[in-house]
Structure prediction request, 447 residues.
Amino acid sequence: MRLKLLPVMLLLAAAPFAGQCEDLMDAYRQAVANDPVLATADAQRLLVAEGVPVARAALLPQLSAGLSLDQIRGGGSQTTDNNGNIVETSGSGHTRDRNLSGNLSQPILDLSAIDNLRAAGAARDSQEQTYQAALQNLYVRVASAYFGVLQAQDMLDIDRSYEDSYKTEFEQTSARFKNGLSMEADVNQTKALYLYYKGVRIGAEDALKDARRALQQITGKPTGELKKLRDDLPMQAPQPNDEQAWVDAALKTNPAVLAARYAVTSDEHKVSAARAGHLPTLTAGVGYNKFGQWSNSMPGTAAYGPATTTVGLTLNIPLFSGGLVHAQVKQALYQRDADLGTLESQRRQAARDAANYFNLVKDGIEQVNSARDSVDAAQKSLNSMRAGYTIGTQSMTNVVFAIEYVANSQFQYAASRYQLVLDKLLLKQAAGTIDMHDLEAVNGLLQ
Prediction:
């Protein structure tokens, strides 16, 4: 089968070249195509949107046509006496009736249908915002899973390096012990720590495998080698540098808040529609009817009546429906009250998230700088401890503590860098302003 050149060229341009590391945008493009969570939200959005034409149909003309054909067996000629009694029956056969009809109706006044249409429109808008929330959440989920792989890889590298370090310490201490320059306690201590970090390294390998599966769960594709976060991260404070500004933005543009707000609007229209069940409706109608009859036992007796056309207005006034309308109004009111509670919960959550992530970003900048300095200081301390142990001024315990401090400092530094980038995305997600450009900006931090 021959393939067109243009689609092939576009496919090659979109796919990463063999041997290259995947980046964040590659993962995002795969997620858009394969993420089941986003696909479900999209299908739900389209499903609810079809409620608008369904509700509109109740206000549009309704046209129907009908054709009935009935056959009556046992027909024939009959002779009766002066008293009306049948004395002779001759022949047998059947009689056929045919009825052709058509009806056209157009609602003129139906307030319930009008409010139902408005409710469907608001429900569509609510679901559209829910889909936007799912799309914005996908940006964060992909970035979080991507950095989860990088962080697990960093943790494995750290554990592997300290396994090697303790292995070296164990070997050197064993050699010193054989030469009478070290105590047996030092040998046992370094051996225990070497074996401990060996087990930790194995656990880190499993954690990395699971992190790769977590990213694959979103993208639907196996995770290859990923580009890493570069060392020089931008350290600018959020703009605007005002917590209340971010909270105000979240209350106005957060899609979860907007979805809840549209849901309440839809409920208000449903309340009006339910109350309109007590109100009269007015419908215009046009009817057409043509009837015919014939019998095979009495030739020449076919009869076709003239076509009739009926034009009129129908006024329907509900009087009593067994309490149905009253119960429907109460149901609609309860649903509105429930969604009002959801709206308030979403508003409070959005305000809290915006304030929280604003502070996390500002404090995260200081944490990254502090963690970087801590790594430098810890490494210098370790070098001094090792030199002191060699000349006998420091104990192996102090060297072990120094190694542990370096390991913790390196992990803290790596984790704080990833978290700072994620918190910036989460801040924009809380405000409802995160978009593709933000993900591309993060992708620009990879190398």
